[in-house]
Amino acid sequence: MNRSSLINARAAAALKLIYVADALSMPVHWFYNPQDIQNAFPGGIKKFEAAPKQHPHDFLKLTDSGAKQIVGDVILKDKKKFWGIPNQHVHQGMKAGENTLNAHCARLVTRTLIDNGGEYDPTRFLQNYIAFMTSDTPQHPDTYAETYHRAFFENLEKGLPPDKCGLAADTTASVGGFVTIAPIAIVEFLRDKNLSKVQKICREHMWLTHPDETLAKIADAYVKLIHDLLFRAESDDPKAIISKVAQLSCKVDLKELCEKSTDDNDIIGGVYSKACPISDSWPSLLYLAYKYNDDSKSALLANTNVGGENCHRGAVLGVVLGLSNADGLGELFGELKDHEAITKEIESLLATSV
């Protein structure tokens, strides 16, 4: 394989594993107790599974106020009836191999890039995002929308301009803000943009929904990691690249962390929280990428089975693994419900850089 083909294979694999990781984790998304995963799926998740009926936590709580309810009237127009039911699964009704809302937003970003010849345009993205989320005809199978989605549309209903709607008081530095970055970073790099330029583009995109300076600094590190893994020489060890980024971005020695315990729950759930804050999810996913670097499927299953914020943490992990191994786990990817459409989107996106 020549260098150009290898870079393209790495890019395609990275984008495919966003959706594989997300769909694997969906049934046990935000299961914080490992025993809850074992109770629902004895022996843990080993393949794509449908969402079980019950969730150990109550996430679907309606807190909207005012004449218009954000959930039901503005977004998720067919899903309000599932909110407010105790222990309703956040992704109720979703089938094996289906993707959650944030993964569908990554597809939305991909299609938006394709329509603009591979060039990122924030105005075009916002127009498409608003149309996608407020469509009367459901554009995705999910029941749950993270706080950032609900806050965005609450601000939009108040009359704020779209590029200011991410300014929510309860915005947190969450790994969910990273799910849509990879398609932008990869295609912009392939279009011969330099690192600082692509970091700036990705920051501006993320700021539309996740305006947080701490998150933006880690986003710069993530984009650099994408760059360094995508363009590395064949002789370069991806683990060394991941390790260096971990040291610089969060002062973590990944080799030392792996030596602490053989049980991933001791690290993700012990050293770091399983929850969404980037201060925990970023070192957690780098740990998994380092420990299981030569076995992408084992890495994604490990991420799934430690639970917590595994969908969005997994989507970012999938990008790192795809770039490391140039392997999109074709057999597993082929079991995704939308694998044919996703394949066409990825191929069309990469074609814009030729």
Task: Kindly describe this structure.
With 354 residues, the chain is mostly helical. The protein is 55% helix and 0% strand. The chain is built from 17 helices and no strands.
Helix and strand arrangement:
Layout: H1 3-25, H2 34-40, H3 70-74, H4 101-115, H5 122-134, H6 147-157, H7 181-190, H8 195-207, H9 213-230, H10 238-250, H11 254-258, H12 264-267, H13 278-291, H14 296-306, H15 310-325, H16 330-333, H17 339-351
Helix pairs in contact: 1-14, 1-15, 1-17, 4-5, 4-7, 4-17, 7-8, 7-9, 8-9, 9-10, 9-15, 10-13, 13-14, 13-15, 14-15
Summarize the structure.
By secondary structure, this protein is an all-alpha fold. It has one domain: ADP-ribosylation/Crystallin J1 (ADP-ribosylglycohydrolase fold, Orthogonal Bundle), CATH 1.10.4080.
List keywords for this structure.
354 residues; ADP-ribosylglycohydrolase fold; mainly alpha; 17 helices
Determine the strand fraction and express it as a percent band: under 5%
Largest sheet: none
Count all strands and give the number: 0
How far apart lie the N and C ends?
Answer: 17 Å
Q: Which stretches of 5+ consecutive residues score pLDDT under 50? A: none
Superfamily (CATH H level) name:
ADP-ribosylation/Crystallin J1
Share of helical residues: 55-70%
Question: What integer value in Å does the Rg equal?
Answer: 19 Å
- Write down the CATH topology: ADP-ribosylglycohydrolase fold
Count the domains.
Answer: 1
Could you say which structural class the secondary elements and strand pairing correspond to?
mainly alpha
- Overall mean confidence score, pLDDT: 95
Number of H/I helices: 17
Based on CA inertia axes, which overall geometry fits?
globular
- In the CATH hierarchy, what is the class? Mainly Alpha
